[in-house]
Structures are given as structure tokens and as C-alpha cells.
Automatic annotation (TrEMBL):
Consists of two distinct domains; an N-terminal heme-containing oxygen-binding domain and a C-terminal reductase domain with binding sites for FAD and NAD(P)H. Residues 21-158 form the Globin domain. Pfam families: FAD_binding_6 (PF00970), Globin (PF00042), NAD_binding_1 (PF00175). It comes from Neobacillus ginsengisoli. It is an enzyme of class 1 (oxidoreductase). Keywords: Detoxification, Dioxygenase, FAD, Flavoprotein, Heme, Iron, Metal-binding, NAD, NADP, Oxidoreductase, Oxygen transport, Transport. It catalyses: 2 nitric oxide + NADPH + 2 O2 = 2 nitrate + NADP(+) + H(+); 2 nitric oxide + NADH + 2 O2 = 2 nitrate + NAD(+) + H(+). The lineage of its organism: Bacteria, Bacillati, Bacillota, Bacilli, Bacillales. Heme b binds at H105. This is Flavohemoprotein. The record marks K104, E417 as: Influences the redox potential of the prosthetic heme and FAD groups. The keyword tRNA-binding does not apply. Gene3D superfamilies: Globins, Nucleotide-binding domain of ferredoxin-NADP reductase (FNR) module, Translation factors.
Length: 426
């Protein structure tokens, strides 16, 4: 299985010609004001979202409001604005990040007509937050810079839309799927098997990618869009998502509106609208190195897809699958992974429970208690010459990323899915 990245198709000469159109004096203004924009980035983007949603409430049908509450979305936008502006003279240096954003935009159905709305409100937010420091000259320069950046995204995403629609089984926009099966995997995770309502072919995807679902919830004023990793291998006649029911956290983060609705109200036979698979976090199927999959909690969803695909398509490849959960009650797909490990000598499963139950202790159903650390990884993995993929809560991923780097694993062999734009786990 291979993938052609958009950067390989993009005519970069056209992009560079667009960048050259930016007046040199305005380019110098952008460079000079970058530190100020970075310092006040989150304040600007928080104000931007409030301003934009007030003037264009219809956009609340696109944006995840929980990410507004947690601050994830404003931070992601602040990172994106700064990162794109800082590299405006040579976007090829940040193409993987631009593609990540473009994939999310395509999956969410962001269209060219949205960019002027964002630009107008972003520039106004810069002016309103920075006050007199944001002179007309500075705002004018940033307006031109935004024009260049948005033009790059619009043309890149246009290619993504066309490529996706042209694929066998591909489609544009949202497509109706029916819940063929609903399976409880743990106390908090439930799987939904989705088949196309029209009975026609569905698009292939690369292990690790996700789909966007659109939910109209009766008690909610606006439509909700959510992205969920595909948790079973490609080549089947269904897509599977495995959704964790998100509970309210310490009175600050509300319970997951969509995840709660899916668990409580969506059943077999119900219809869900989804966009075609997307995402830039995916398994390199051509590598011959041992594969190490590390997941925490519901971060196992893309790992299950990678594991199932590898067993099916590369049964000779050695796989070490390490999963961390609170205990067995919250551990999804445990029996399935154990069966794979029993049936395939190339697969080894290792389990870490933070707080094993009395039954877990009695049954000896885990390999380590507490947390994953570098010392333990060195003990259980016979080599560090492997490809490492990991996914889970951000604190979990920071620990894993730090451990792998301390072990001397090069960046080209470290792969993870990170929410945001130009953020990192460092």
C-alpha cells in the first residue's frame, strides 16, 4: 500500500511566484512584528474566535466548541499563523505541517469562501488586541501575508478535494452511512461499524487515518463535527470507529456532546454522515523494520488499524504492541490482541495498568503496573532499530516521545498524532 502526498503533486513554482508578489517592505514588516504576534498569539486568536462567531454564528456548525473551551483551538490557530508567517519566504520547509492542516480542513469541508471571513476577523482581532501598536502599515502588511497564506491553502486543498473525489469509492462532501453493528469494547469505549447507505464501494485509506462525522443533536442548536480514527484495517466493506465516552473533567471540561450522544442514542440501523478518510498520520507499509505500537487509553484506535493491517498484509513483520490503560475494565480490544498474538508468532502484546484491579492482580492479566518508562522499554524491546508509532493523551505522548529521544531514536522513526498545527511534544 502506497500513498502519494500532496506535496509531490503541488506545483511549487506557482506558490513561490505568489510569495514573490509580496512587497519586500511588507515582508520586512512581517519579520519585524513576528515576535509581537507570537507573544500575543493566543490572546489574538481567542478574541478572533469570539468575534467571528458573533458575526458568523453559522460557523459554529464547523468548529468544535469543546476545543474552544479547553484552549486547544486558539492555541492551534496561533501556532499556525505564526508558523506560516515565519516561513512565508519558503513554504516548502513546512509542507508536512501545511498538509496536516489541509487534511483536517478537507475532512471538515473548509472551502475557499471561508478564508475571507477568517482573514477579516483575524486582522480585526490583531488590531483590537494590540491597539495602537498595530498601525495601519502593520495591518496592511499582515493582510497581504494572510492573502499569500490563504492562497496556498486554497490551492492545496483544492487538489485534495479533487484527488479524494476521484479515488475509487471516493466522494465529495458528506455521505450517508448506516450503523451496521454497535459493539461495546470496554466500560467507556464502543465501536460503530459503518456501511454506505447506497451499498456502493467505499474509498480505501491508509492505517492511521480518520473520518469526520456530522451529528445533528436535537437538544443542540448547531451541528457538531468530530474526527475519529478508523480502528479496523482498510479493504473491508465497512469503516469502524471506536469512540470513548468523554466524561466531564473536574467541572472545567464538559462531557463530550457527540461521544455521549453516540453511546446513548445511536444504534444499529441509524444513519451517520461522514466525509472520506483523511489524515497525515499513517503507517509506512513499505518499511521492513520491526514495528512498535504504543497506545494510551483510546489512543489505541489508530494502533488497532495498524496492527490489523500489518497482520493481514505484512505477516512477516515483527510487531510489538504496548497498551497502557487504567485497568482491564477500561481496556478495549484486549481479547482480540491476545488472539492475534497467539495466532501470529510475529506479534507480541504487552499491557501496562496504572491501577490494576484486584481481579487483574489475581489473574496476572498485565505485564507492568504504573506507567511506561524508558528503563522498561529497554527491557522488553530487543532492539531500538524499529519504527515507533504512538498515540494517547498529550501527557502520555510527551512521556513516550521524551523516552524515545533519550534512547537515541531518530525523528524519522518516531511517529505520533498531535492535535494542533505547529505544536510539538517537546
Amino acid at each position: 500500500m502506497t500513498v502519494t502526498k500532496v506535496s509531490e503533486q503541488q506545483t511549487w513554482q506557482e506558490v513561490l511566484e505568489t510569495v514573490k508578489a509580496l512587497d519586500p517592505q511588507k515582508l520586512e514588516i512581517i519579520k519585524a512584528t513576528l515576535p509581537i504576534v507570537k507573544e500575543h498569539g493566543e490572546a489574538i486568536t481567542k478574541h478572533f474566535y469570539k468575534r467571528m462567531f458573533k458575526q458568523h454564528p453559522e460557523l459554529l456548525n464547523i468548529f468544535n466548541q469543546t476545543h474552544q473551551i479547553t484552549g486547544h483551538q486558539p492555541k492551534a490557530l496561533a501556532d499556525a499563523v505564526y508558523g506560516a508567517a515565519a516561513n512565508i519566504e519558503d513554504f516548502s520547509q513546512i509542507m508536512p505541517v501545511l498538509e496536516r492542516i489541509g487534511e483536517k480542513h478537507r475532512s471538515l469541508q473548509i472551502k475557499p469562501e471561508h478564508y475571507p471571513i477568517v482573514g477579516e476577523n483575524l486582522l480585526a482581532a490583531i488590531k483590537e488586541v494590540l491597539g495602537d501598536a498595530a498601525t495601519n502599515e502593520i495591518i496592511d502588511a499582515w493582510a497581504d501575508a494572510y492573502g499569500v497564506i490563504s492562497d496556498v491553502f486554497i490551492r492545496m486543498e483544492d487538489r485534495m478535494y479533487k484527488t479524494t473525489e476521484a479515488k475509487p469509492g471516493g466522494w465529495a462532501g458528506f455521505r450517508d452511512f448506516v450503523v451496521d453493528k454497535k459493539v461495546k469494547e470496554s466500560e467507556v469505549i464502543t465501536s460503530f461499524y459503518l456501511k454506505p447507505k447506497d451499498g456502493k464501494q467505499i474509498a480505501d485509506f491508509i492505517p492511521g487515518q480518520y473520518i469526520t462525522i456530522k451529528m445533528d443533536i436535537g437538544s443542540e442548536k448547531f451541528t457538531h463535527l468530530r474526527q475519529y480514527s478508523l480502528s479496523d484495517r482498510p479493504g473491508l466493506d465497512y469503516y469502524r470507529i471506536s469512540v470513548k465516552r468523554e466524561e466531564e473533567k473536574e467541572g472545567e471540561i464538559p462531557a463530550g456532546v457527540v461521544s455521549s450522544f453516540l453511546h446513548a442514542n445511536i444504534n444499529e440501523g441509524d444513519m451517520i454522515q461522514i466525509t472520506a478518510p483523511a489524515g497525515d498520520f499513517y503507517l509506512d507499509m513499505d518499511s521492513d523494520l520491526p514495528l512498535v505500537l504504543i497506545s494510551g487509553g483510546v489512543g489505541l484506535t489508530p494502533m488497532m488499524c495498524m496492527l490489523n493491517t500489518t497482520v493481514q498484509e505484512r505477516p512477516d513483520r515483527k510487531v510489538y504492541y504496548i497498551h497502557a490503560a487504567v485497568n482491564s475494565k477500561l481496556h478495549a480490544f484486549k481479547k482480540h490482541v491476545n488472539n492475534l498474538a497467539e495466532d501470529h508468532k510475529t506479534v507480541k502484546s504487552l499491557v501496562v495498568y496504572e491501577k490494576p484491579s484486584a481481579e487483574d492482580i489475581e489473574m496476572k492479566s498485565y505485564d507492568k503496573d504504573g506507567f511506561i518508562n524508558l528503563e522498561w522499554l529497554k527491557e522488553i524491546l530487543p532492539t531500538k532499530g524499529a519504527d515507533f508509532y504512538f498515540c494517547g493523551p498529550e501527557p502520555f505522548m510527551k512521556v513516550i516521545n521524551k523516552a524515545l529521544k533519550q534512547w537515541g531514536i531518530s525523528e524519522e522513526h518516531i511517529h505520533y498524532e498531535f492535535f494542533g498545527s505547529f505544536g510539538s511534544l517537546d
